[in-house]
Amino acid sequence: MATKAIFSEVKNNGLGYWGILGLLGLVVLGGIWAFSYMHHHGHYVTGMNNQVVWGMPHVFAIFLIVAASGAANIATIGTVFGKTIYQPLGRLSAFLAGSLLVGGLIVLLLDLGSIGHVIEMAKGALNFKSIFAWNMILYSGFIAIIAVYLWTMMDRRKTAKSLYRSVGIANMVWRFLLTMGTGSIFGFLVARQYYDAAILAPLFIVSSYVFGTAIYILVLMASFKMTGRELGDSVLNRLRYTLATFIVLVLFFELTRHLTNLYATEHHGVEAYILSGESKFTSMFWYGQILLGSLIPLFLIWCRFLKNNRTVLVVAASLSIIGGFFQLYVILIGGQSFPLVLFPNAEVSSSFFDGVNNAYSATLAEILLGLGGVALALILVVIGVKIFRLLPETLADINVDPHHK
Amino acid sequence: MSHINSYRRKFLGGLAGTAAVATVAPGIFLREVQAKPAEQEVTDKVRWGMLIDTTKLTDGGDACVEACKKEHGWGNDPESNVAQQAQWIRKVKVTEKLTGHTTTLPVMCQHCETAPCVDVCPTGASMKRADGIVQVNKHICIGCRYCMMACPYKARSFVHETLTNQLPDTPRGKGTVESCNMCVNRVDEGKNPACVDAAPQALLFGDLNDPQSKISVALKTYGGTQIRADLGLNTGVRYWGI
Asked: Of A174, A171, A195, A173, nearest to A184 (Cα)?
């Protein structure tokens, strides 16, 4: 018999809690250093250049932003689709989503060449034909909706409760637009062979579910273990199979995307470069994204002998996060690495790297900036669970599963 | 006259005409560009464009590149590696795979009518003037580089380091994106872009909206190829011989 969940703040005050906070703080400091270093010198201290214009910071930023949308999906399943077992998971889901988004946006912002000019946008310098401008509205709106959503989940007043479902639906629709908007950053680029495809928008949506669910699983398991709360197999199994379903969906969209591209002669070059070339992107795609990030997690989740094995679930979730990172790296960097086609059916060369596969390797500063964003997102969660009642006191099977015997 | 002969005659006549226009036009053309008083607004009555005859470029465009560098002062970014250094205009060598035919041409911002860089810019810094010149407003460019992702011609560069001794007519700075602005400073003074003056035998500059202008007459008579015409961007820069 399921009982109503009781939420409480994290009471831990020991070395463990402050230790985690301290460690994450150090990583954030590393990110701040990286920003000031890049800002002071200019982007020549990065691996980015006039060919590969977006680099590692963007991989991190887009990963976090997309993952944010996916992390909130756990709450959506409870609110919009009325799955009661997911409802106690909603608060952490929404808060994690907001935190990941802030982490990602900070990285994106701190990579800008002229961050001081951002103020001009507040003064009205906005071009609404730009998907970037729309994203800024979608991202800030998402944080506002998340705040209201959390309020409807956490306030006991009737007004809050009555708005719970409608805000949940609004949140779901908004997330849909947000992730599509992020995918469309690439989908609208007619110039690049590897982008310019509407399928990138739904691909980003399903990818967001994988990243978000995997991160949610890890955060939930870690927070429950560290605070000594009981976490039953019922919840974990739901999350486990949800993750697997989303991984399959991503594989389906990837298959469709590549097959569609392969049908068009003009895309043969870039598809060969990514799928069967000798570049690092080929290994990243097949071994990183497909094998390590998709097939192995699917096996770990669906193998009957590994059922209810928590270590295996941690491995599966971690691998799908790594796979997601590879996926974005291949899309972002691999897509830019392939040269623009100015003259089809011709060999081109110039002093500006026309016709050559562009090299990119991230410098330490870029990696530290990206990791700083991840650490910031996690710090917000670590602080959040201490000051807000985000975590249920128990997620034991008997409390959450109406069918538990 | 046989069918073949008539075709041959037409073809040779076309070639001679092309050569004549390309040779004579630049000299006449200088007087066609009118200086625009500073207080007068830019109007869409004109659309500036350029025609490049690659067959007349004896150096493949080297002089154009040098003139651009001198006019706008780029090429002074020593901290950046070669992949990071700015290039507003470059010489591209194109060899057709089947025939082996090789052409060399200068490539820079093509000043598209519907410019992807203008569409994607979140702040409107990447903008098109009413007279068709596409350029970057450095005051509101946040340095996101989305325009560089969007440009099909790889025409844009990002300034990767602090610059010194910039030229007064060409605002440039660290953390902003830049590209060929068709020498907007010179055009407003009634002059030709620097690259046009550097290779007057091959480059023609003028008003595409004026059917009487030399460039319009030349383009109407013999056409002009756009790079990536399939994208439908209606570029302001057209080529012969590619």
From this structure: A195
**Pair A320, A214: CB distance under 8 Å:** yes
Chain A: residue whose CA lies nearest to B151: A191
Choose, out of A36, A342, A345, A366, the residue to mutate when testing the contact with B (most B CBs < 10 Å). A342
Question: Which regions in chain B score pLDDT beneath 70?
Answer: 1-34
Looking at CA atoms only, how far is residue A146 from chain B in angstroms?
A: 24
CATH T-level topology, domain A8-114+130-391: Formate dehydrogenase/DMSO reductase fold (1.20.1630)
Parent domain of B202 = 3-240
Number of Cβ within 10 Å of residue B159's Cβ equals 28
CATH number for the domain spanning B21: value is 3.30.70.20
Strand arrangement, sheet containing B237-240: B203-207, B48-53, B237-240
Nearest one of B152, B109, B153, B144 to B123, comparing CA atoms:
B144
Q: Which residues of chain B make contact with A334, given a CB cutoff of 8 A?
A: none
Reported ipTM: the value is: 0.92
Distance CA A59, CA A20 (A): 25
Q: Quick one: which of A84, A106, A83, A195 has its CA closest to B150?
A: A195
What per-residue confidence (pLDDT) applies to B6?
A: 62
Distance CA B82, CA A198 (A): 34
Neighbouring C-alpha atoms within 13 Å toward the C-beta of A207: 29
> Shortest Cα distance from B207 to chain A (angstroms)?
26
- For the record, the structure tokens of A228 come out as 């000594």
Rounded to the nearest 5°, which phi and psi values hold at A235? -65, -45
Query: pLDDT by residue (tens digit) across A323-337?
Result: 999 999 999 999 999
Q: Which residues 6+ apart lie within 8 Å of A93 measured at CB? A: A71, A72, A73, A74, A75, A216
Domain ranges of chain A: 8-114+130-391
CA distances from B190 to A312, B29, B204, B206 (A): 73, 11, 14, 11
**pLDDT of res. B31:** 42
- pLDDT for residue B10: 61
Domain count, chain B: 1
Nearest to A117 among B79, B85, B140 (CB): B140
Q: Dihedral through CA A25, CA A27, CA A28, CA A34, nearest 10?
A: 150
**B124 Rama sector, left if φ>0, alpha if ψ -120 to 50, beta otherwise:** left
Contact A350, B90 (CB under 8 A): yes
Mean pLDDT rounded to a whole number for chain A: 94
